[in-house]
Specification:
The structure is a homodimer.
Chain A: H1 5-12, H2 16-24, E1 32-33, E2 39-40, H3 43-57, H4 62-70, H5 76-110, H6 121-142, H7 153-183, H8 189-205, H9 211-223, H10 225-232, H11 238-249
Antiparallel strand pairs in A: 1-2
Helix pairs in contact in A: 1-2, 3-4, 5-6, 7-8, 8-11, 9-10, 9-11
Chain B binds a DNA duplex (30 and 30 nucleotides) through α2.
Pfam family, one (chains A, B): TipAS
Keywords (chains A, B): Activator, DNA-binding, Transcription, Transcription regulation
Protein name (chains A, B): MerR family transcriptional regulator
DNA sequence: ATAAACCTTTACGTGGCGTAAAGGTCAAGT
DNA sequence: ACTTGACCTTTACGCCACGTAAAGGTTTAT
């Protein structure tokens, strides 16, 4: 199947201008130009555009996307990990901002004045982040040795489906953790619901559930920082709270 | 306390250029200009800048921010509480984005082992392998080899189940397509149910759903014969009907 | 034959600044 | 008193990822 600009635009949801611009900057060239000078795109270009839009969704710049999709020696995984790190920083910056907002509300309501330099704590994080972006580029240039099989586009979509289905249960667990953690009571109703859900989740991968093993895993959650960060990343203090909730649930506390 | 451009810039973390630009567009005028033409800012401007940066963080345009902060009939505390809510939403959006990136990394890292017909199996192996790599040693030490092997087996089955669940959803889609197609009305109740189900099915594999992309895919169903045959093989005229139903559902028709 | 709906290139506009360039001001050290 | 260097000023062009318009050519349907 072949597509003109408008056809591909409708197919993909982007504008015609965008496609011409992508051609102009060499990000997505049409398969050929017909006798009237029209851009004609083929299957390969449809796939490539999909890939481009995927990375665009993730907030990559077009230049970096071009490197990712055109350079076979580009380390896509490293790029994504880098991006993930940037997202994490953005998130912790948001957390600090929220704290500042809370403080400001408190000071407005309570009349206590905030120090001038305190007012901008959240915004300063962004500055640090931006600097790291600059230097990070140099570091990123050093990656890019592994050869990635370029024919994995469709596969990636398929795998995403599975991963999503698999993490759904875990998603629910995190939602419960957030809710229960907000109560602050590891013996409360929500916390016990959380522990119960955690047990269900566990039983998917553990053939034989036992309270001992469950409590043991809870201990590992606070003892091993890989687990701690895993939960704390999503819910602040989540690992400790989950630990406490499980200990109550299993009758150890 | 009074501040020159550089002082306020350092205090707030924005650049001097930004402050001059904000002056230029009338968003943040200095308290006064001294005899040498220097911009001098006071306390009030510090507060105003802080407010401006809050809204900027939330993604508001400077013009809209100007309207918000210069309107005297504005409840600051209420606005800040709104800020906080918006920040929470932004954070959860970031979380979703991070999850998508994580999923992509996971599927890419398994890339080498995944080939055509074995793609899915290869992914399962990779997951099990990762699980072992990450936590295998500790768990083995604590719970013994038998437990681990059984757990791996369970995980294998789980992925198999999920794959089946996905296939089941597609099966339901075909049943709905048959029923809706029989009515002949792509705007009818059944057709809209069909489009909704199709969206659900789609969202398994698309990290970000949009009406545009959905409508675009519908166009592809009738434009690309691989898709047309795929649906027509099961329900005669199914591709065209599904296309029409989706266009109605997404408001394109 | 004509109109509508495409297609093309060229070119300027947008936001939110970054980054010179060219020059004026101020405080400190010599 | 003079120089240095860190500040300040305005003017102006550059950047991304396109949107929008102008001026014209091509295709398709009636």
């Amino acid at each position: 199947m072949e597509y003109t600009v408008k056809k591909l635009a409708q197919l993909s949801g982007v504008s015609g201008r965008t496609l011409r611009y992508y051609d102009q900057i060499g990000l997505l060239k049409p398969a050929r130009i017909n006798t009237s000078g029209y851009r004609i795109y083929g299957e390969k270009e449809v796939d490539l555009l999909q890939q481009i839009l995927f990375y665009r969704e993730l907030g990559f710049g077009l230049e970096e996307i071009s490197r990712i999709v055109h350079d076979p020696s580009f380390d896509q995984v490293a790029a994504l990990k880098n991006h993930h790190k940037a997202l994490e920083e953005k998130r912790s910056r948001l957390d600090k901002l929220m704290t500042t907002v809370e403080k400001t509300i408190a000071s407005l309501e309570g009349g206590a004045a905030m120090q001038d330099n305190e007012k901008f704590d959240g915004f300063k994080e962004k500055l640090i982040h931006d600097n790291e972006q600059k230097y990070g580029k140099e570091i990123r240039d050093k990656y890019g040795d592994d050869t990635i099989d370029a024919s994995n586009k469709k596969l990636r979509n398929m795998l995403q489906e599975d991963f999503q289905a698999m993490t759904k249960l875990e998603e629910e667990l995190f939602e419960l953790l957030d809710k229960a953690n907000a109560t602050g009571d590891p013996a409360g109703k929500e916390a016990q619901e959380l522990a119960e859900k955690h047990k269900q989740w566990l039983m998917y991968s553990w053939p034989t559930y036992s309270k001992e093993a469950h409590a043991g895993l809870a201990e590992m959650y606070v003892a091993d920082e890989r687990f701690t960060t895993y939960y704390d990343k999503r819910v602040k203090g989540g690992a400790k709270f989950l630990h406490d909730a499980i200990l109550h649930y299993t009758g150890r506390m």
